[in-house]
Amino acid sequence: MPKAALHEDQLRSLESLAHRMDRAFRIPLIGTRVGWDSILGLVPGAGDAIALLPAGYILLSGHRMGASKGTLARMAANIGIDTLVGAIPLIGDLFDIGWKANVRNVALLRRHLKHTAAQDEALAKRLARRSDSNRTAPRQATAVHPHRRDIERSTRPQS
């Protein structure tokens, strides 16, 4: 299975997990979507700790998929903000409704992998062009070895 297809399957799985954690339910009348992260955040202490598990899994998956250190740092920052502010009673619960760390992290990961794939594709095209040009038009020697100049001059027909 190609690397891109494997990543696509993993990303879809992570998006599904992020959706369940951040947007699984719609609050009637308001229309705002909340997920299990917001619901678990209502349970003091243990709820926020339990909600860290799927967020950590998304971060670990990003590492395994080859995300850059910068992308992983941003993902960790999103989780840290969600956890720290989410630990504040009531304010943290309201914050969890708007701050969708899991959805943000999967979007960051997708954007990074798409950018990396585009760079890899461009590099492959440049390398293919370079190898094609080497195959179709062999180079002619333009420089003469310094010790051979005397020999070439003596064997060259005089005009």
Automatic annotation (TrEMBL):
InterPro entries in the cross-refs: DUF4112
Biased composition (Basic and acidic residues): 149-159
Record protein name field: DUF4112 domain-containing protein
Organism: Leisingera methylohalidivorans DSM 14336
Domain of life: Bacteria
Chain intervals for the UniProt region annotation (Disordered): 128-159
